[in-house]
Amino acid sequence: MLPLDSLPAPAPPPATTLLAGVTVVDLTTSIAGPYATMLLADMGARVIKVERPGAGDDCRAWGPPWLDGESLWFLSVNRNKQSVTLDYSNDAGRKVLYDMVKKADVVIVNLVSRVQKKLGIDYTALKALKPDLVFVSLTGFGLTGARQDFPCYDLIAEGYSGVMDLTGEADSPPQKVGTPAADLISGMDAAMATLAALFERQKSGNGHQIDIAMVDSMTRFMSPRILPYLGSGEVPTRTGARDSVIAVYQAFDTQDKPLTLGLGNDAIWQRFWQAVGQPAKGDDARHASNADRRADRAAIVADIEAILRTKPRDEWLEIFKQAKVPAGPVNSVDDLARDPELLARGLLYTAESGGRRVPQVGLGIGIDGVNSTYRTAPPRLGEHTSAVLRDWLGYDIQTVAALRLQKLI
Questions:
Q1: Which CATH fold would you assign to the domain 248-335?
Q2: Which one of the listed residues 183, 189, 211, 216 is annotated catalytic?
Q3: In this predicted structure, what is the pLDDT of residue 68?
Q4: For the chain, what are the domain ranges?
Q5: 154 phi, psi to nearest 5 deg
Q6: Is residue 391 annotated as part of the catalytic site, yes or no?
Q7: Full DSSP string of 338-406
Q8: Residues 191-219 pLDDT 10s
Q9: 209 by DSSP, 3-state: which?
Q10: pTM of the predicted protein model
Q11: Fewest CB within a 10 Å sphere: which of 25, 124, 201, 280?
Q12: What CATH number has the domain spanning 3-221+346-405?
């Protein structure tokens, strides 16, 4: 019995079709690029994932854990796509890729600038084939500058951005965020920019080159910490997330399990103290404003910690719910997977495909009252090669067989 066995089926079709008619050729691997194209696929785009014969996306090898021999990391960012295997490192294979580009609306790559040019998949080369192409480059450091050809992973981008330096307890080493944040944020940027470029192309007929750098995306993510430094000269440091601009905005221990508590304005501050049976503290003139409370944060936090340790978490959460005080549990992943509201909203589900059950985390975006985005499970390597070459590119059986004989597909 696995956790996926208790998940519901995906929301019933019809799935979202806002991007129906848009074709994306995805030349990316790992997480950031595949996540970007999955977002587009969830919105209805046709995504053709081009992978190396025999090996495929690097992420296919990232395990354990595995599900029926497949990487669960891979399965997390590749639904609603078709997989085609193609070696385009030579002229014969590149001709096939170029035939795809001529029929595509979007091409997304995650190779550094030097390699893009070496393989003939840079913007200049592909624009010559398809003048109105939306070309998306998603790399660690972008297409310009002294670092443009540096290799990069999520870990590296997080280190550059400053987020690791601010994550963790004050006396702990720098810590990576607990999910591939730079990958996912830059992937969202790539999808958002693609949509904007497609929208503009409808008006002008022009193609566009989009340059996404993981370090840039992650740095923008840090704006609420960077701007206060730039405007004050105060360098933020690791505090275990206890240094928010909001005076009381952190996790607290209770009698059993931790909870989070955010007292974000004066009215909530007063409601909190009423809820815990000490309304006079909410009216104390010494703590009337957020700035006042920040100045006395250590003493206030100590008072709150002592109070919250007197009852179990769930009892406090019920009290705060009634008082309209923002609070919540500190869920582990297994807690999250059992959350009845997330299950009811269809965010977590298990899909049946080809005799296997594949768990998924949905898009989480409702459109016209519907949140159905699932069409197909993440593809097996090369699952759609023959169909795409024959049905989309119009290759005959003999041509496909010859490509296979040359080990190009």
A1: formyl-coa transferase, domain 3 (3.30.1540)
A2: 183
A3: 92
A4: 3-221+346-405, 248-335
A5: -50, -45
A6: no
A7: T-HHHHHTT-EEEEEETTEEEEEE-----BTTB-----SPPPPTTTTHHHIIIIIS---HHHHHHHHHT
A8: 999 999 999 999 999 999 999 999 999 99
A9: strand
A10: 0.95
A11: 280
A12: 3.40.50.10540
